[in-house]
Amino acid sequence: MIVLVVRNYEEVSLEAALKVAETIRSKPDAVLGFATGSTPIGCYRELIRMHRMEGLSFSKVSTFNLDEYVGLSPDHPQSYHYYMFQNLFNPVDVKRDNIHIPNGVAEDLEEECRRYEDSIKQAGGIDLQLLGIGRNGHIGFNEPGSPFDSRTRVVKLSEQTRMDNARFFKSLGEVPTHAITMGIATIMEAKRIILLASGEAKAEAVSKAIKGPKTIMVPASALQDHPDCLFIIDKKAASLL
Ligand code: F6R
């Protein structure tokens, strides 16, 4: 694990966008793994700027998102489909056919999970996976207790995660109880992983992920075994290191 500590959220976003852009420039048909949540928004904003001002093209890129809520259709404003189109895909030239996000309203969710794993394999695996981290150390929606050999599956969200995400919904009751997420083993197969974290609220999870014992109770601690994993975090998120 390499840890890059920068001053603030803006620098986290900029550094992350530079790494994504570097990957696309060296491999125009790169397979990129994306995350949602508040943290990557600044990175996506910077990538959009690079597309508009510097000609960064996503036309050959394939994308795979980490997760999606069960029960939210792609046009639901809180779905991760909607988020990705709003925050990155619409303003850039990525091809619709190359975008992959788990379908949270699939009739057969188990089959959807298998199909998702297969499509990652068919694409040749993920070259660069962006991650955020939950306050409880989750990555994707792999909550504490998720086995390190887990693959894409339906999971129950912890109450802390539902409460953390309630800020995007009208009430806690509206936050879905389940999600489809890539598993920890799925994430660990990405050739390169970059985890972003900003703010004091993430300091404990970041410190446990980097310095703590490898344990399924801190899913991000699995990353200690990844051969090419970079944490880009700001000073506040690094305050307990
Ligand atoms: C989102 C995801 C989650 C978030 C995490 C942090 O696709 O997989 O693991 O990265 O919950 O969320 P924020 O960035 O909102 O603090």
Q: In short, what is this structure?
A:
The protein is α/β, with parallel strands linked by helices and 241 residues long. The protein has 7 helices and 10 strands. It has one domain (2-234): 3-Layer(aba) Sandwich (Rossmann fold).
Element order: H for helix, E for strand: EHEHEEHEHEEHEHEHE
Q: Which ions, cofactors or small ligands are bound in this entry?
A: fructose -6-phosphate
CATH architecture: 3-Layer(aba) Sandwich
Question: Rounded to an integer, what's the Rg over CA atoms?
Answer: 16 Å
CATH topological fold name: Rossmann fold
Helix content: 25-40%
Number of domains: 1
Strand content: 15-25%
Main beta sheet: strand number and arrangement? 7 strands, parallel
> How are strands sequenced across the largest beta sheet?
1-10-9-6-2-3-5
Structural class: alpha/beta
What do the pLDDT scores average to? 97
Number of strands: 10
The dominant shape is globular
Task: Write the topology of this structure.
Blueprint: E1 2-6, H1 9-26, E2 31-34, H2 41-54, E3 62-65, E4 67-69, H3 80-89, E5 99-100, H4 109-122, E6 128-131, E7 153-156, H5 159-165, E8 178-181, H6 184-188, E9 192-197, H7 203-211, E10 229-234
Parallel strand pairs: 1-10, 2-3, 2-6, 3-5, 6-9, 9-10
Antiparallel strand pairs: 4-8, 7-8
Helix pairs in contact: 1-2
Fructose -6-phosphate binds at residues 35-39, 66-67, 132-134, 138-141.
Q: What attributes characterize this protein structure?
A:
single chain, binds fructose -6-phosphate, 10 strands, Rossmann fold
What does this structure look like?
- With 241 residues, the chain is α/β, with parallel strands linked by helices.
- The protein has one domain (2-234): Rossmann fold.
- Helix content is 32%, strand content 17%.
- The strands form two sheets. Strands 1-10-9-6-2-3-5 form a seven-stranded parallel β-sheet, with helices on both faces.
- Helix 1 crosses helix 2.
- It is globular and about 40 Å long.
- The protein starts with a strand and ends in a 7-residue tail after the last strand.
- The model has no long low-confidence stretch (mean pLDDT 97).
- The protein binds fructose -6-phosphate.
